[in-house]
Amino acid sequence: MNHTFGVPCPNCGSWATRSYFNSSEAKYSNCPQNHVIQTECSHCDYLMIMCSFNGTVIEAHASSTSAMMKENQKQLMLLPAKLLT
Asked: Mind listing the pLDDT tens digit for each residue in 28-43?
């Protein structure tokens, strides 16, 4: 049975879809019984497909604009202003 949920994107924080597949729709030779988890975000072009049994990453793609990178850029921009006061 396949299930799909809305989850926060691990890359940008927008809403992404996480799908659990355990049928013949997803055929991967390195994943037992084809049990895979697919997380994808159309906002930032994030994609992660992994085996739900052993955690093996089957396919992955992420843009270079992650939420953590954006937070670090904000901190760097604020740092000189804090030093001046």
From this structure: 667 877 788 999 998 8
How far the first Cα of the chain sits from its last, in Å, is 59
What is the spatial order of strands in the sheet that 3-8 belongs to? 3-8, 15-21, 36-41, 46-51, 57-61
CB-CB contact of 30 with 56 (8 Å): yes
Does residue 84 surpass a pLDDT of 80? no
Supply the pTM of this predicted model.
0.66
How many CB atoms within 10 Å of residue 51?
A: 19
Check: CB of residue 41 under 8 Å from CB of residue 30: no
3-state DSSP percent of the chain in helix, strand and coil, to 5: 25, 35, 40
Cα dihedral: 55, 57, 60, 63 (round 10)? 50
